[in-house]
TrEMBL record:
Domain Coenzyme F420:L-glutamate ligase-like as annotated: residue spans: 10-275
InterPro entries to which the protein is assigned, alphabetical: F420-0_gamma-glut_ligase-dom (IPR002847)
Gene3D superfamilies (UniProt xref): CofE-like
Entry protein name: Coenzyme F420:L-glutamate ligase-like domain-containing protein
Length: 275
């Protein structure tokens, strides 16, 4: 008879580096922990492996220059727009910096009052009091500053995201605010959709309303190559900054990795685990 419910253990592993056999590391680390701390593995046990170490072991990195080269191949023009990025500096800043280096003009369309994951560009109560309608109103930075002030800091990070992202270019970045992706087509027909869950709809809307070159972040760095990292399914989606000029991509071949971990545990322990 069991007297406890779910038990969670953090398993200590060696430092994981590029090229490591992560399947063997996971297996060996859990078996050592099981033996050393006297707990048994059971059918249905769940093994969670953070995506970061999977990418690290796969050497799944791209540099800022490699991002710029791939974007330029897909957008062989002088002007580009980025639509509805999330505001996380860790996820978007190096992508923008890479792109701003190789285009004369970069237009950024931000959703408001917040990005897709809830980072606010303005106080939603003040937006309501000012009579702004996020479903129909589109405007530029001048109106944004007139309405909300010369400095609009994020409540928790203390960052004015509009100022910060403009600072990543050489006075070649323009910022606009709208939840309608069609608004950006007034400025350029070359658009990189940077949203996540709504990206297919965004690309469809842009193409149907005059967009000439339209891709998403999932289309950048998605080609298989031995020269740099890549993710065939997600491209730059899920990437994050790991140094001043390098991004770690979302791990590739996740299903194959999970199945191999399950297979090795079944072989070594006879247990059917979930990964």
């Amino acid at each position: 008879m069991r007297y406890t419910g779910t038990v969670v253990r953090g398993i200590r592993t060696p430092v994981i580096t590029s090229g490591d056999d992560l399947v063997s590391i996971v297996l060996d680390s859990i078996l050592r922990a099981s033996k050393g701390e006297k707990f048994d593995l059971k059918d249905g046990d769940i093994i969670g492996i953070t995506e970061a170490v999977v990418s690290i072991s796969q050497r799944n990195y791209v540099t800022a220059d490699e991002v710029a080269i791939d974007v330029k191949k897909k957008f062989p023009v002088k002007e580009i727009a980025l639509v509805h990025p999330i505001l996380s500096r860790n996820r978007f800043s190096l992508i923008l910096e890479s792109i701003a280096k190789v285009y004369d003009k970069v237009h950024i369309l931000l959703s408001y009052p917040a990005d897709e994951v809830g980072n606010h560009l303005m106080d939603p109560d003040k937006m309501y009091d000012l009579g702004l309608n996020p479903y129909s109103d589109s405007f530029g930075e001048t109106k944004y500053r007139n309405l909300f002030g010369e400095e609009v800091k994020h409540r928790f990070t203390g960052v004015d995201y509009v100022k910060y992202y403009k600072s990543l270019g050489d006075e070649n970045i323009k910022i606009y605010f709208s939840n309608d992706p069609k608004f950006i087509l007034k400025y350029t027909k070359n658009v990189l959709a940077c949203d996540i869950h709504t990206r297919e709809r965004t690309k469809k809307i842009l193409k149907e309303n005059g967009g000439e070159i339209v891709y998403g972040l999932d289309d950048i760095c998605n080609r298989k190559t031995s020269k740099r990292g890549y993710n065939k399914e997600y491209g730059l989606l899920g990437s994050n900054k790991v140094s001043e000029n390098k991004l770690k991509l979302f791990p590739r071949d996740g299903n194959e990795f999970v199945l191999e971990v399950q297979k090795r545990f079944k072989k070594e322990t006879g247990k059917d685990v979930e990964v």
